[in-house]
Each structure stands twice: as structure tokens, then as C-alpha cells.
Amino acid sequence: MTRKTKRAIFILIFSEFLVCLGISLVIPVMPFLKTELHLSATDMGIMNALFALAQFVASPLIGRLSDKIGRKPVLTVGLLLYMVSEVLFALTNYLWVFDISRLIGGLSAAMVVPTAMALASDITTKRQRAKVIGWLSAAFSGGLILGPGIGGILAGISYKTPFWVAGALGLLSAIVLIALLPSDAENKRVVEEPEQAKTTAHPMSRAFWTLPIIILFTMILVSSFGLQGFESIYSIYVNEVFNFSLSNIALVLTLNGLISLFLQVALFDTMVSKWGERWVIRLCFFLAAICTIWITQAHTKLEVMVATLIIFSAFDLLRPAITTLLTKASESDQGLINGLNMSLTSIGNIVGPIMSGMLLDWNTHVPYLVVAVFLIVSYLMAFLLKQPGKQQSTVN
Length: 396
What we know:
This protein is an all-alpha fold. The chain is about 80% helix and about 0% strand. It contains 15 helices and no strands. The longest helix has 30 residues, at about 245-275. The protein is globular. The two termini are about 30 Å apart. The model is unreliable at about 190-205 and about 390-395 (pLDDT under 50).
């Protein structure tokens, strides 16, 4: 791996972490926004779903765009939009402006997350890819999980402080990316090697839609529904059911973020090399389903914290495992593949928060029982999964 490639990967990791940090900063302040502005859980669910709606609409279009005009311009605009989203959220106390902010944030995430994954696929070999995607997924998950903890700490100053800080970091990240990320022409020169020169079927052709790819995309849709159904109401649920304070929420989510980062950076590549992505996917779905049920039956804060650590760790290993299999399924049009990945994830992200918010207004435990059902379905689907292509190194 060349020096330019390493620098590009570092910048991608930083950018992806930053965007996902901003996505999740809102989580610890949700129960307090809900109380202060007299909102319902459904209102909060819709606010989260609008973020996903923007991702859903924009992701496949932006994936194609990045394949045509290059990754760097798309990443730059995405980071600038991220800054606008965070600053707008900090400036207002009106629900409709919060909603607009989250729409802009969803567009930003659609531009940054799949494009970063596509660029990583462009500049790495198949042998390097699981490790690099593990790092990017660690940044993705680390931002999502550390965001609530950092947001909770900063909210001790003011509940708007996290968003001002995120906006400033967004501007800084855009400047760093413009100045230091190699041009698309340089990145293409890095990747020119025999294994990358292979051609595959056009992504919209029947030949592209093999059974492994269909199952992988279906699993992304089903699992994202369950994941967001769990994550979107977590802070509200534990606040109302177990009397978690802002500091309790910040503690458990920060601790979980550190554990998840360790698992992804230090262990993910080893687990994939030794057991294969399919084994990791099955284990993660199983643990997430069992511990989600456990939370609904828990009696102490400690039980909830332990179950939460297991659930989020499982989710954060699941993302890179599925993504790695997808990038191995086709060597061309990585922008489109990752765009479809994000788009299908967004469908689950749209429906999950709204469903959980509405169910939470009705009954506190029902949302998580429904989530458990979807995780069990995903676990069973994992046994239908066959390795795409002819990659034998991760097949057991």
C-alpha cells in the first residue's frame, strides 16, 4: 500500500467518523428535546426518519454521480452540507427546522458514507479490502456510538453545544479533504493492477443480480429496520422505563463505542480471515436478538447496560461483514453498489424510527419485541447466504 493510498484512507476514515458523529449527536438530547418542546415519540421518530428519507432518495443517484465525476468533489460537497445541517440544528428551537436540518444531514451522509466506501474499494486490492473496510466501518460505527456519549458530555454545557462543535469540525474536515486527499486521477493510478482490471456485468443487468447479492441486499433492508427500530428510541426508552439520566446514557454509549472500535479495528479482520463473513453475520444477529429480548425483561440498570453493550457491538460487527461481502460481489461500479447499500439501509431507517416511536407511545416494551422478531428473521436469512463470486478465503 503506497503512501498516497494510506493518506487517502486516513482522510476517508476521519471524514466518515465525523459525519456519523453528527448523525448520532442528537440521540442523548432527544428525551430532553421531547420534554422541553412538548413533542411525542412519534415526532422524534419522524425527525429521525426524514434523515433516512434523504439518504434513500439521494444515495443511488449520488453513487452513479461519483462513478462519473469522481469521488473527491462529492465528498467535499457532502462535508460542507454536513456543516450546514449541524449549524442549522444549533440555531433553532422549532420542530420543522429540526426536520429540515435532518433532511440536509441525510443528504450529506448519502454523499459521504457510500462515496468513501467506494473510494476505499477503488484504491485497495481484494486482500487489503476487508481490513480497510473494517477500519471505515469502525469509523462509521464509532461515530454513531461515540456521538451520543460526546453529545451527552457537551450537552452538560448547553444542549446546543454539540451541534456547534460538530459544525466547526465539519468545516475543518472539508478543508483537510480539499488540501490533502489525492485527486481522482491519482487514486485511479494507485489501483491499476491485474485483479482490478476484470470486467463484470452491468449493475442493472440480470447477470448482476445473482442470488448472493439479492440475499445480501435483503438482509441489509431487514436488519436496518430492526437496528433503527432499536437505536432510534433507545435514549427515550431507557429514560422512561429505567430512569436513565443524561450522564447514564452518555456513559453506556461512550463505553460501548470504545468496545465497538476495539472489536472492529483489532478483531474484525482476524474474525473474517478465520471464520468468514457469514459466520460473523449469523453470530451477530443471534446475539442482538437475544439481548434485545433481555432488555425488555431486565430489572436493573446494570442488566440494561450489559445487554446494550452486546447489542451495539453485534450491530457494529454486522455492518462491515455485510459490506465486505458486497464489495467482493462485483469489482466494478463500486459507487453504485455502495449507493444501493445506503439506499436500502435508508428504507429501514425511515420505517424503523417511525414504527418504534408510534409503538412506544402505545406501550413501552412492544417496540423492542417487534425489533427482536426482525432480528430473528435476519438470523435465519443468514443461513441462506452463499459467498458471492469465487472468493474462497472466507468460506467455511
